[in-house]
């Protein structure tokens, strides 16, 4: 038997047992979500010897990879770092097939981990958390679920992911559309045929960038409605060879150490130079090299000041615009695809798989709706002003109510019955992106004000910190932990300070700031100091005896 499986099989916890004078609970911890965050948290709880129940709305593990089945869905992280680091046996026995795993392979990986570690016995599928209320007298959480049951626990952990609530625009007439329509973030299990169909794609974010090239291969016509053009970088996907798999397995210790230090949690090195440090010829050579290499190395291994210096950013952004003009044959379409209103990286730049090349197809047209927006969905298509664009299928690639959207759907109430929605009316209020004042023993994995970076590595740091906090409570015979209001306020100010040191505030409507959702507070949703610095800050707070927290 594997060491992972045997260790976890022996840590069943004490379900329903009263220990150390504490009230009886059904589970030590309840975890919401069975994606990367939920599975990693379950492993940590087992390592601590705690009983746990994971509650998942879907019928299987996968999280975002369960629902995002749209054509072309795949990671933007290279396979070997889009993975768990807690088990050498999983690393040695799972074979990635491509540099960037597709949706089916990413989901299959999570299924493999769940089976390898015998996790399913602790997961309740097809169940939603309706509400969670903190009982101040017993210092426990009462969790109500969609099957009509109530569970109690000492610790509540949300692992719902930053991109798990798709945003469907409220266009007039959408319910009268005579054809089919789909949300990329909640794609049906059954295959969707585009053969011979007129397809309208609304949006040009990361999901659209992946889907459009594949939809265009069989559709009769594809009309893309673009509000804001994106900087799309080449992915250069390819099958992995046995030699490559052997190489990353042999170097995993170094790879994980790099990811834990890196700004974006990748196994990249800092460039060690700024744009102004080299002449134009050398600058061009560097940019060309990393453009051909693919991945986000183009952003992180070319020059170190792309995100912090507007002039440096513009130099690199213009290089990308030149590439767009060189790839797209029609000059007018090329200019529409060139971002000019925000810096490179101020909005999430996707990796592309022949995205710009797709606009050279005769069956693809691009419609800008920046100055002449979509006014309605008609029975037969999409209305832009008084012009109707006929469609048999509409694909809404309109993104997500990011970070806070899923948390808002659950009625989570802390001290005094105050709801998380009320407490966060002006935007999320956290300390370390993990806890919120007024909500004792509530932890968030990959929650608001944690880094936007390669998510498995971010999750690993968050979960390790939560595990450390739970161990601290257990060893000190403490019952509760929650951040002080002062620490939460200071963290919010810190988020503003960090983002203001970058070019990010120059992008209007960015979902990084909640700008893509009507009525959503425009605040910083992520920690923009880098994943490595974030891990250091979290560990420093723990090293100082969980400074900034009230422990009772």
Number of strand segments = 20
Helix amount:
25-40%
Structural class: alpha/beta
The total domain count is: 2
CATH topology of the largest domain: FAD/NAD(P)-binding domain
Shape: globular
Annotated CATH architecture of the largest domain: 3-Layer(bba) Sandwich
Rg (CA only): 24 Å
| pLDDT < 50 stretches | 1-20
- By CATH, the superfamily of the largest domain comes out as FAD/NAD(P)-binding domain
Name of the CATH first level of the largest domain: Alpha Beta
Distance between termini? 40 Å
Instruction: Figure out the total of helices.
Output: 18
Sum this structure up briefly.
By secondary structure, the protein is of the alpha/beta class. It has helices spanning 3-9, 36-47, 64-67, 88-93, 103-116, 206-218, 242-250, 252-261, 280-293, 297-300, 310-327, 331-337, 355-358, 405-409, 420-423, 455-475, 485-499, 531-543, and strands spanning 27-32, 52-55, 123-124, 129-135, 140-145, 150-158, 180-183, 198-202, 221-226, 233-234, 351-352, 364-368, 374-377, 381-384, 387-390, 393-396, 411-413, 442-444, 481-483, 549-551.
């Amino acid at each position: 038997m594997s060491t992972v499986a045997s260790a976890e099989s022996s840590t069943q916890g004490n379900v329903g047992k009263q220990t150390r004078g504490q009230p009886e609970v059904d589970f030590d911890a309840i975890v919401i979500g069975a994606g990367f965050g939920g599975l990693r948290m379950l492993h940590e709880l087992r390592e601590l010897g705690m009983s746990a129940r994971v509650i998942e709305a879907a019928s299987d593990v996968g999280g975002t990879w369960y629902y995002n089945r749209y054509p072309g869905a795949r990671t933007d992280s290279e396979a070997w770092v889009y993975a768990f680091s807690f088990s050498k046996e999983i690393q040695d026995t799972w074979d990635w097939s491509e540099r960037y795993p597709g949706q089916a392979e990413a989901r299959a990986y999570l299924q493999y981990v769940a089976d390898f570690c015998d996790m399913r016995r602790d997961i309740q599928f097809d169940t939603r958390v309706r509400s969670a209320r903190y009982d101040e007298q017993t210092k426990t959480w009462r969790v109500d679920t969609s099957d009509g049951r109530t569970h109690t626990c000492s610790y509540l952990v949300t692992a719902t992911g930053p991109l798990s609530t798709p945003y469907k625009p409220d266009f007039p007439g959408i319910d009268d559309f005579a054809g089919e329509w789909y949300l990329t973030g909640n794609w049906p299990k059954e295959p969707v045929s585009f053969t011979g169909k007129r397809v309208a794609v609304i949006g040009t974010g990361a999901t659209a960038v992946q889907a459009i090239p594949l939809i265009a291969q069989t559709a009769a016509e594809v009309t893309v409605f673009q509000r804001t053009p994106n900087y799309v970088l080449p992915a250069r996907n390819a099958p992995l060879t046995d030699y490559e798999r052997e190489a990353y397995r042999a170097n995993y210790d170094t790879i994980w150490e790099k990811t834990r230090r890196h700004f974006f949690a990748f196994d990249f090195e800092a460039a060690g130079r700024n744009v102004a440090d080299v002449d134009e010829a050398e600058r061009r050579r560097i940019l060309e090299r990393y453009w051909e290499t693919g991945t986000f190395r183009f952003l992180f291994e070319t020059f170190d000041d792309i995100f912090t210096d507007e002039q440096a950013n513009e130099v690199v952004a213009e290089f990308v615009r030149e590439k767009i003009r060189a790839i797209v044959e029609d000059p007018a379409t090329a200019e529409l695809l060139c971002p000019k209103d925000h810096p490179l990286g101020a909005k999430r730049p996707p990796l592309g798989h022949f995205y710009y090349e797709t606009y050279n197809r005769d069956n693809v047209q691009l419609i800008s709706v920046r100055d002449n927006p979509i006014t309605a969905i008609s029975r037969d298509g999409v209305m832009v002003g008084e012009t109707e664009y006929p469609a048999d299928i509409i694909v809404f690639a309109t993104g997500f109510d990011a970070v806070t959207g899923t948390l808002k759907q659950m009625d989570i109430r802390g001290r005094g019955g105050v709801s998380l929605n009320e407490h966060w009316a002006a935007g999320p209020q956290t300390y370390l992106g993990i806890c919120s004042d007024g909500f004792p023993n509530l932890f968030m994995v990959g929650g608001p004000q944690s880094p936007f970076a390669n998510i498995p590595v971010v999750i690993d740091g968050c979960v390790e910190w939560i595990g450390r906090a739970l161990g601290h409570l257990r060893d000190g015979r403490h019952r509760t932990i929650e951040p002080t209001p002062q620490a939460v306020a200071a963290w919010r100010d810190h988020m503003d300070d960090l983002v203001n040191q970058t070019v990010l505030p120059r992008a209007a409507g960015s979902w990084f700031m909640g700008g893509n959702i009507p009525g959503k507070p425009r605040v910083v949703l992520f920690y923009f100091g880098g994943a490595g610095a974030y891990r250091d800050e979290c560990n420093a707070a723990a090293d100082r005896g969980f400074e900034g927290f009230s422990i009772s």
